[in-house]
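Re-run with default settings, no changes from the original entry. Doing this only to confirm the output is reproducible before filing.
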Amino acid sequence: MSEFFSVRVADAGRLPLFAFFVSFIVTFVLTRVNVRLIRADVRWWFRNVKAGDLHIHHVVFGVVLMLVGGVMGFAVPDAYQGFVITAAVIFGAGAALVLDEFALILHLSDVYWTEKGRASVDAVFVAIAVTGLLLLGIRPVGFEGLEPDPDGTLSRPLLIAVYAGSLTVNLILAVLTLLKGKIWTGLAGLFLPLLLVIGAIRVARPGSPWARWQYEPGSRKARSAEWHEERFRRPLIRAKIWIQEFIAGRHDLIPPELLHRRPSTRRRAARRAPFNAARPRRTTLARGERRPLRSAVRGRSPRRGTRSWKPRPPRDD
Protein backbone atom coordinates (compact mmCIF):
# COMPACT_ATOMS: atom_id res chain seq x y z
CA MET A 1 0.00 0.00 0.00
CA SER A 2 2.80 2.41 0.84
CA GLU A 3 4.51 1.59 -2.45
CA PHE A 4 1.28 2.22 -4.35
CA PHE A 5 0.84 5.56 -2.56
CA SER A 6 4.42 6.63 -3.23
CA VAL A 7 4.28 5.67 -6.91
CA ARG A 8 0.74 6.80 -7.78
CA VAL A 9 0.46 9.86 -5.55
CA ALA A 10 3.70 11.21 -4.12
CA ASP A 11 6.08 10.56 -7.02
CA ALA A 12 3.44 11.55 -9.58
CA GLY A 13 2.96 14.97 -7.98
CA ARG A 14 -0.64 14.29 -6.92
CA LEU A 15 -0.18 14.93 -3.22
CA PRO A 16 -2.24 18.18 -3.23
CA LEU A 17 -5.00 16.36 -5.12
CA PHE A 18 -4.91 13.58 -2.53
CA ALA A 19 -5.19 16.16 0.26
CA PHE A 20 -8.17 17.73 -1.50
CA PHE A 21 -9.79 14.30 -1.95
CA VAL A 22 -9.42 13.29 1.71
CA SER A 23 -10.52 16.69 3.00
CA PHE A 24 -13.57 16.65 0.72
CA ILE A 25 -14.76 13.21 1.90
CA VAL A 26 -14.11 13.85 5.60
CA THR A 27 -15.88 17.23 5.54
CA PHE A 28 -18.88 15.81 3.70
CA VAL A 29 -19.26 12.89 6.13
CA LEU A 30 -18.92 15.12 9.19
CA THR A 31 -21.37 17.64 7.76
CA ARG A 32 -23.98 14.98 7.09
CA VAL A 33 -23.53 13.50 10.57
CA ASN A 34 -23.95 16.96 12.05
CA VAL A 35 -27.12 17.87 10.13
CA ARG A 36 -28.69 14.47 10.84
CA LEU A 37 -28.08 14.90 14.55
CA ILE A 38 -29.54 18.41 14.41
CA ARG A 39 -32.58 17.10 12.55
CA ALA A 40 -33.07 14.33 15.14
CA ASP A 41 -32.88 16.99 17.89
CA VAL A 42 -29.98 15.22 19.62
CA ARG A 43 -27.77 17.09 22.08
CA TRP A 44 -24.74 18.03 20.08
CA TRP A 45 -21.99 20.63 20.17
CA PHE A 46 -22.98 22.17 16.85
CA ARG A 47 -26.38 23.68 16.17
CA ASN A 48 -27.92 25.74 13.39
CA VAL A 49 -26.16 29.05 12.92
CA LYS A 50 -28.58 31.98 13.03
CA ALA A 51 -28.23 35.74 12.92
CA GLY A 52 -31.48 36.85 14.49
CA ASP A 53 -34.22 35.19 12.43
CA LEU A 54 -31.87 34.50 9.51
CA HIS A 55 -30.64 30.92 9.17
CA ILE A 56 -27.12 30.87 7.74
CA HIS A 57 -26.59 27.75 5.62
CA HIS A 58 -23.22 26.03 5.60
CA VAL A 59 -22.86 26.80 1.89
CA VAL A 60 -21.88 30.32 3.01
CA PHE A 61 -18.94 28.97 4.99
CA GLY A 62 -18.07 26.74 2.04
CA VAL A 63 -17.83 29.70 -0.32
CA VAL A 64 -15.53 31.51 2.13
CA LEU A 65 -13.28 28.45 2.55
CA MET A 66 -13.09 27.91 -1.21
CA LEU A 67 -12.10 31.56 -1.69
CA VAL A 68 -9.42 31.33 0.99
CA GLY A 69 -8.03 28.04 -0.30
CA GLY A 70 -8.05 29.12 -3.92
CA VAL A 71 -6.31 32.43 -3.29
CA MET A 72 -3.81 30.71 -1.02
CA GLY A 73 -3.05 28.11 -3.69
CA PHE A 74 -2.37 30.81 -6.28
CA ALA A 75 -0.41 33.10 -3.96
CA VAL A 76 1.98 30.54 -2.43
CA PRO A 77 4.86 29.41 -4.69
CA ASP A 78 5.03 25.74 -5.64
CA ALA A 79 8.28 25.33 -3.73
CA TYR A 80 6.37 25.53 -0.44
CA GLN A 81 4.73 22.14 -0.64
CA GLY A 82 3.26 22.32 2.85
CA PHE A 83 1.36 25.53 2.13
CA VAL A 84 0.07 24.10 -1.16
CA ILE A 85 -1.26 21.01 0.64
CA THR A 86 -2.87 23.22 3.29
CA ALA A 87 -4.56 25.26 0.57
CA ALA A 88 -5.83 22.03 -1.02
CA VAL A 89 -7.26 20.88 2.33
CA ILE A 90 -9.07 24.19 2.86
CA PHE A 91 -10.39 24.20 -0.70
CA GLY A 92 -11.62 20.60 -0.38
CA ALA A 93 -13.48 21.38 2.84
CA GLY A 94 -15.15 24.40 1.24
CA ALA A 95 -16.08 22.43 -1.89
CA ALA A 96 -17.73 19.75 0.26
CA LEU A 97 -19.82 22.34 2.10
CA VAL A 98 -20.89 23.97 -1.17
CA LEU A 99 -21.80 20.75 -2.99
CA ASP A 100 -23.64 19.46 0.06
CA GLU A 101 -26.17 22.24 -0.59
CA PHE A 102 -25.97 22.12 -4.36
CA ALA A 103 -29.76 21.62 -4.59
CA LEU A 104 -30.32 24.81 -2.59
CA ILE A 105 -28.23 26.77 -5.10
CA LEU A 106 -29.92 25.05 -8.04
CA HIS A 107 -33.52 25.66 -6.93
CA LEU A 108 -32.89 28.84 -4.88
CA SER A 109 -35.00 27.31 -2.13
CA ASP A 110 -34.43 25.32 1.06
CA VAL A 111 -34.99 21.83 -0.37
CA TYR A 112 -32.28 20.15 1.72
CA TRP A 113 -34.48 17.34 3.12
CA THR A 114 -36.94 17.09 0.23
CA GLU A 115 -36.89 14.93 -2.88
CA LYS A 116 -35.09 17.67 -4.81
CA GLY A 117 -32.35 17.63 -2.18
CA ARG A 118 -31.02 14.38 -3.63
CA ALA A 119 -29.31 16.48 -6.30
CA SER A 120 -26.78 17.55 -3.66
CA VAL A 121 -25.81 13.94 -2.92
CA ASP A 122 -25.57 13.21 -6.65
CA ALA A 123 -23.23 16.18 -7.11
CA VAL A 124 -21.04 14.98 -4.23
CA PHE A 125 -20.87 11.46 -5.64
CA VAL A 126 -19.89 12.80 -9.07
CA ALA A 127 -17.14 14.96 -7.55
CA ILE A 128 -15.77 12.01 -5.53
CA ALA A 129 -15.82 9.70 -8.57
CA VAL A 130 -14.09 12.16 -10.90
CA THR A 131 -11.46 13.14 -8.31
CA GLY A 132 -10.78 9.47 -7.49
CA LEU A 133 -10.22 8.63 -11.16
CA LEU A 134 -7.86 11.59 -11.57
CA LEU A 135 -6.03 10.52 -8.42
CA LEU A 136 -5.46 7.05 -9.88
CA GLY A 137 -3.89 8.61 -12.96
CA ILE A 138 -6.83 8.00 -15.30
CA ARG A 139 -7.16 11.05 -17.49
CA PRO A 140 -10.17 12.17 -19.48
CA VAL A 141 -10.26 10.56 -22.89
CA GLY A 142 -8.31 12.34 -25.60
CA PHE A 143 -5.66 13.88 -23.35
CA GLU A 144 -3.29 10.92 -23.24
CA GLY A 145 -0.25 11.38 -25.41
CA LEU A 146 -0.43 15.16 -25.60
CA GLU A 147 2.61 15.63 -23.40
CA PRO A 148 5.12 18.09 -24.87
CA ASP A 149 8.62 17.17 -25.87
CA PRO A 150 11.53 17.88 -23.51
CA ASP A 151 12.07 21.21 -25.23
CA GLY A 152 8.47 22.19 -24.42
CA THR A 153 7.04 21.94 -27.98
CA LEU A 154 4.70 19.52 -29.69
CA SER A 155 6.63 18.30 -32.76
CA ARG A 156 4.20 15.56 -33.84
CA PRO A 157 1.49 17.28 -35.88
CA LEU A 158 -0.03 14.00 -37.14
CA LEU A 159 -0.47 12.64 -33.62
CA ILE A 160 -1.87 15.98 -32.52
CA ALA A 161 -4.45 15.82 -35.30
CA VAL A 162 -5.39 12.25 -34.36
CA TYR A 163 -5.80 13.12 -30.70
CA ALA A 164 -7.79 16.24 -31.51
CA GLY A 165 -10.10 14.20 -33.76
CA SER A 166 -10.61 11.51 -31.13
CA LEU A 167 -11.28 14.17 -28.51
CA THR A 168 -13.91 15.80 -30.75
CA VAL A 169 -15.64 12.48 -31.45
CA ASN A 170 -15.66 11.51 -27.79
CA LEU A 171 -17.06 14.87 -26.73
CA ILE A 172 -19.85 14.54 -29.31
CA LEU A 173 -20.65 11.05 -27.99
CA ALA A 174 -20.60 12.39 -24.43
CA VAL A 175 -23.05 15.19 -25.30
CA LEU A 176 -25.31 12.69 -27.09
CA THR A 177 -25.23 10.37 -24.08
CA LEU A 178 -26.10 13.24 -21.74
CA LEU A 179 -28.97 14.33 -23.99
CA LYS A 180 -30.34 10.79 -23.72
CA GLY A 181 -30.57 11.27 -19.96
CA LYS A 182 -27.64 9.02 -18.99
CA ILE A 183 -25.70 11.32 -16.70
CA TRP A 184 -23.50 8.76 -14.97
CA THR A 185 -22.71 6.96 -18.23
CA GLY A 186 -21.72 10.22 -19.90
CA LEU A 187 -19.43 11.28 -17.07
CA ALA A 188 -17.81 7.87 -16.66
CA GLY A 189 -17.44 7.62 -20.43
CA LEU A 190 -15.03 10.55 -20.41
CA PHE A 191 -12.59 8.16 -18.77
CA LEU A 192 -13.81 4.91 -20.39
CA PRO A 193 -14.68 5.63 -24.06
CA LEU A 194 -16.50 2.32 -24.53
CA LEU A 195 -19.27 3.55 -22.21
CA LEU A 196 -19.83 6.56 -24.47
CA VAL A 197 -20.35 4.33 -27.49
CA ILE A 198 -22.83 2.15 -25.61
CA GLY A 199 -24.69 5.15 -24.16
CA ALA A 200 -24.95 6.87 -27.56
CA ILE A 201 -26.26 3.77 -29.36
CA ARG A 202 -28.78 2.48 -26.84
CA VAL A 203 -32.28 3.86 -26.39
CA ALA A 204 -32.76 7.12 -24.48
CA ARG A 205 -34.48 7.47 -21.12
CA PRO A 206 -38.14 8.56 -21.07
CA GLY A 207 -38.46 12.28 -20.47
CA SER A 208 -34.93 13.07 -21.66
CA PRO A 209 -34.42 15.80 -24.29
CA TRP A 210 -33.53 13.21 -26.94
CA ALA A 211 -36.71 11.21 -26.22
CA ARG A 212 -38.86 14.35 -26.47
CA TRP A 213 -37.27 15.33 -29.76
CA GLN A 214 -37.02 11.97 -31.52
CA TYR A 215 -39.58 9.56 -30.02
CA GLU A 216 -43.23 9.94 -30.94
CA PRO A 217 -45.69 9.14 -28.12
CA GLY A 218 -46.75 5.50 -28.40
CA SER A 219 -44.07 4.59 -30.94
CA ARG A 220 -41.92 1.49 -30.73
CA LYS A 221 -38.91 3.41 -29.45
CA ALA A 222 -40.98 5.18 -26.82
CA ARG A 223 -42.38 1.86 -25.56
CA SER A 224 -38.89 0.36 -25.59
CA ALA A 225 -37.55 3.29 -23.57
CA GLU A 226 -40.31 2.87 -20.97
CA TRP A 227 -39.68 -0.90 -20.80
CA HIS A 228 -35.94 -0.43 -20.26
CA GLU A 229 -36.63 2.24 -17.63
CA GLU A 230 -38.98 -0.03 -15.70
CA ARG A 231 -36.95 -3.20 -16.08
CA PHE A 232 -33.36 -2.05 -15.56
CA ARG A 233 -33.22 1.62 -14.52
CA ARG A 234 -35.73 1.61 -11.67
CA PRO A 235 -33.95 -1.13 -9.61
CA LEU A 236 -30.66 0.76 -9.98
CA ILE A 237 -32.31 4.01 -8.92
CA ARG A 238 -33.84 2.33 -5.86
CA ALA A 239 -30.43 0.93 -4.91
CA LYS A 240 -28.82 4.35 -5.38
CA ILE A 241 -31.50 6.02 -3.24
CA TRP A 242 -30.98 3.42 -0.51
CA ILE A 243 -27.23 4.13 -0.47
CA GLN A 244 -27.85 7.89 -0.46
CA GLU A 245 -30.30 7.68 2.43
CA PHE A 246 -27.94 5.40 4.35
CA ILE A 247 -25.16 7.99 4.05
CA ALA A 248 -26.98 11.31 3.94
CA GLY A 249 -30.35 10.64 5.61
CA ARG A 250 -33.90 10.45 4.30
CA HIS A 251 -35.23 13.18 2.04
CA ASP A 252 -38.91 12.94 2.93
CA LEU A 253 -40.06 16.43 3.84
CA ILE A 254 -42.79 18.24 1.91
CA PRO A 255 -41.36 20.70 -0.65
CA PRO A 256 -41.70 24.36 0.38
CA GLU A 257 -43.81 25.25 -2.67
CA LEU A 258 -46.40 22.64 -1.62
CA LEU A 259 -46.16 23.40 2.08
CA HIS A 260 -46.89 27.11 1.70
CA ARG A 261 -49.34 26.85 -1.20
CA ARG A 262 -52.53 28.76 -0.41
CA PRO A 263 -55.84 26.95 -1.01
CA SER A 264 -57.91 27.90 -4.00
CA THR A 265 -60.67 30.50 -3.84
CA ARG A 266 -63.37 27.84 -4.02
CA ARG A 267 -61.87 25.91 -1.12
CA ARG A 268 -61.52 29.05 1.02
CA ALA A 269 -65.15 29.97 0.28
CA ALA A 270 -66.30 26.46 1.18
CA ARG A 271 -64.43 26.66 4.47
CA ARG A 272 -66.00 30.01 5.39
CA ALA A 273 -69.53 28.94 4.32
CA PRO A 274 -71.93 27.56 6.96
CA PHE A 275 -72.72 23.86 7.07
CA ASN A 276 -76.17 24.03 5.44
CA ALA A 277 -75.38 26.79 2.95
CA ALA A 278 -74.87 24.38 0.06
CA ARG A 279 -78.36 22.81 0.43
CA PRO A 280 -81.03 24.17 -1.93
CA ARG A 281 -83.88 26.05 -0.37
CA ARG A 282 -87.35 24.49 -0.26
CA THR A 283 -89.64 26.29 -2.67
CA THR A 284 -93.29 26.99 -1.91
CA LEU A 285 -95.70 24.83 -3.94
CA ALA A 286 -98.47 26.37 -5.99
CA ARG A 287 -102.10 25.61 -5.30
CA GLY A 288 -102.94 22.05 -6.27
CA GLU A 289 -99.30 21.05 -6.91
CA ARG A 290 -97.90 18.04 -5.15
CA ARG A 291 -94.31 17.51 -4.11
CA PRO A 292 -92.81 14.42 -5.83
CA LEU A 293 -91.44 11.60 -3.76
CA ARG A 294 -87.66 11.28 -3.40
CA SER A 295 -87.70 7.89 -5.05
CA ALA A 296 -89.50 9.32 -8.06
CA VAL A 297 -87.01 12.15 -8.32
CA ARG A 298 -84.16 9.66 -8.36
CA GLY A 299 -85.84 7.65 -11.11
CA ARG A 300 -86.91 4.66 -8.97
CA SER A 301 -90.34 3.30 -8.33
CA PRO A 302 -91.79 4.04 -4.88
CA ARG A 303 -92.90 0.42 -4.51
CA ARG A 304 -91.82 -2.78 -6.15
CA GLY A 305 -93.92 -3.98 -9.04
CA THR A 306 -95.32 -0.54 -9.86
CA ARG A 307 -94.42 2.00 -12.46
CA SER A 308 -92.38 5.08 -11.76
CA TRP A 309 -94.54 7.76 -10.20
CA LYS A 310 -95.13 10.93 -12.17
CA PRO A 311 -96.56 14.12 -10.69
CA ARG A 312 -100.16 14.84 -11.69
CA PRO A 313 -100.98 18.10 -13.46
CA PRO A 314 -102.82 20.64 -11.33
CA ARG A 315 -106.66 20.50 -11.49
CA ASP A 316 -108.83 23.44 -12.29
CA ASP A 317 -111.19 23.74 -9.33
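The chain has a mean pLDDT of 78. The chain has 14 helices and two strands.
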